[in-house]
């Protein structure tokens, strides 16, 4: 039996050890996002920070830097900055990280995921696990999924209901070269630019159109910069990933790693449910502002699918044949 004195010594040593471990913790961890708190994306990050603070009783503090400010507005640099330790954590879009993690282009394949059940079948299944492994292999620890949403097409010129309507239209596209290929296949004239540059370019008419989820169109008031036409084509959706730089991750105790992960899972689930539930009201608000909303018939939809098939041919080898097949099978077998 241990004497009281030795017990005290053990207790003191434990205290020392745990304070030594805590001493490695930063006073504050940086969390990068593109969109701030007015958007579901920013709210996902807010929720994560709040849950971690609460559950760690204030030991782990995170501060959000939105508008990609930690990478001077260039959202395609976020992943590299996290990998190199310049950014500790992020809630990032699969699109913005795909230049460094080619597997993430999976979600950008046009018309791969027809509905929410298809997104969930991929993220919550084997394909989702394989994508997380790909992220981890490149220096970042993924913890949970969130959602930016199905990206719909807007423009200032005409109601788009078939691929030929896009002929020659200048469309702002996001960070992965895959989007250049999709819009080129449709006959449009795509220009890649950051979110920071998108609204000014729409305002001056440097571009005619853009694609983003309804929540982004609504909150950023894209209708106010002449985007009068909106086509609901659901051609892709970008999940969000809650993640921590591997270097920072390794400094947390196993308990705190579990805490950070569970808080991310809970925040992600909360945000996905919330943003899906808000969608109908958001669409109504957009219509109420006088935006022409075009929905596609099955035939019109299929014309877009056929026009973009070449993207699969070029990008499947880059994403990984097995991963694409796995995702397609998950979608085909999804629960409705
Ligand atoms: O830049 C965009 O369009 C945005 C905000 O949706 C992303 O960061 C992918």
From TrEMBL:
InterPro entries recorded: DctP_fam (IPR018389), TRAP_DctP (IPR004682), TRAP_DctP_sf (IPR038404)
Keyword field: Signal, Transport
Signal sequence segment: 1-23
Gene3D superfamilies: Bacterial extracellular solute-binding protein, family 7
Coiled coil: none
NCBIfam families, per database record: dctP, TRAP_S1
Family under the similarity heading: Belongs to the bacterial solute-binding protein 7 family.
UniProt name for this protein: DctP family TRAP transporter solute-binding subunit
Organism: Marinobacter xiaoshiensis
């Amino acid at each position: 039996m241990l004497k009281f004195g030795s017990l005290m010594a053990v207790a003191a040593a434990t205290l020392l050890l745990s304070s030594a471990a805590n001493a490695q913790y930063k006073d504050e961890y940086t969390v990068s996002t593109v969109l701030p708190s007015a958007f579901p994306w920013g709210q996902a990050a807010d929720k994560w920070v709040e849950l971690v603070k609460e559950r760690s009783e204030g030991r782990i503090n995170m501060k959000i830097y939105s508008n990609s400010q930690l990478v001077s507005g260039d959202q395609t640099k976020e992943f590299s900055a996290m990998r190199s330790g310049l950014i500790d954590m992020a809630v990032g879009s699969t699109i913005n990280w795909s230049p460094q993690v080619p597997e993430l282009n999976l979600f950008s394949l046009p018309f791969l995921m027809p509905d929410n059940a298809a997104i969930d079948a991929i993220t919550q299944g084997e394909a989702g696990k394989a994508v997380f492994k790909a992220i981890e292999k490149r220096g970042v620890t993924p913890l949970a999924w969130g959602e930016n949403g199905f990206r719909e097409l807007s423009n200032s010129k005409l109601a788009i209901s078939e691929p030929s309507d896009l002929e020659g239209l200048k469309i702002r596209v996001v960070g992965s070269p895959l989007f250049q290929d999709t819009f080129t296949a449709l006959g449009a004239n795509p220009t890649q630019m950051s979110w920071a540059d998108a609204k000014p370019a729409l305002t001056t008419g440097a571009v005619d159109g853009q694609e983003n989820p309804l929540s982004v169109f609504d909150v950023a008031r894209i209708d106010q910069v002449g985007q009068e036409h909106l086509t609901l084509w659901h051609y892709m959706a970008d999940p969000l990933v809650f993640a921590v730089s591997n270097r920072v991750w390794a400094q947390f105790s196993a308990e705190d790693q579990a805490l950070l992960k569970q808080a991310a899972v809970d925040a992600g689930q909360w945000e996905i449910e919330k943003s899906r539930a808000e969608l109908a009201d958001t669409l109504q608000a957009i219509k109420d502002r006088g935006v022409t909303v075009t929905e596609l018939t099955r035939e019109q939809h299929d014309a877009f699918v056929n026009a973009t098939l070449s993207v699969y041919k070029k990008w499947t080898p880059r994403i990984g044949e097995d991963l694409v097949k796995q995702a397609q099978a998950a979608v085909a077998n999804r629960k409705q």
